[in-house]
Design goal:
mainly alpha, 2 domains, F-box-like_dom_sf, ubl conjugation pathway, Monooxygenase, disordered N terminus, elongated
């Protein structure tokens, strides 16, 4: 079956076969305008944290859907928790939202993961880290990193 541009997309059809939205030929269609919010959230749920933040800057509707969905931020935060369990659990105990918790711990998680994987094992001076975003790490995290270095 070949694509026929003259036919309406199934997303724009009601049960009776009439278009739910008249497509404007001058602008691309926005799926979030035609789908239920829950479906848009499921689509946005396939994005990683950086892509989710970029998508939220696309238009007001996407921004609203993404910003209001604790489900999206929770999913991303649980991925960060795999590396920064103590930090994420502490923020959640303090009553911070999933979005705020993610914002506070995302950079820390990326840095800690790189240290634990040995990405910085061969660094001889601070100059080799120029351009790399660094963030503060607590004593327990440094202990984990040092132990990982000793185990290598």
């Amino acid at each position: 079956m070949q694509y026929e541009p003259s036919r309406s997309s199934p997303a724009f059809l009601l049960c009776e076969g009439r278009p739910a939205v008249t497509p404007d030929a001058d602008r691309p269609q926005n799926f979030a305008e035609t789908l239920p919010t829950e479906m848009s959230v499921r689509i946005f749920g396939e994005l990683d944290a950086e892509s989710l933040c970029s998508a939220s800057r696309t238009c007001r509707l996407w921004h609203h859907i993404i910003e209001q969905s604790e489900q999206l931020w929770r999913r991303q935060c649980l991925l960060v928790r795999a590396v920064c369990r103590r930090e994420v659990d502490g923020d959640r105990r303090d009553g911070l939202s999933w979005k705020v918790t993610l914002g506070r711990n995302y950079s820390r998680c990326c840095l800690k993961r790189d240290w634990l994987r040995g990405r910085f094992s061969q660094v001889r001076s601070a100059d080799e880290l120029s351009g790399r975003k660094m963030t503060s790490l607590d004593a327990e995290t440094w202990g984990e990193i040092l132990q990982a270095e000793l185990d290598r």
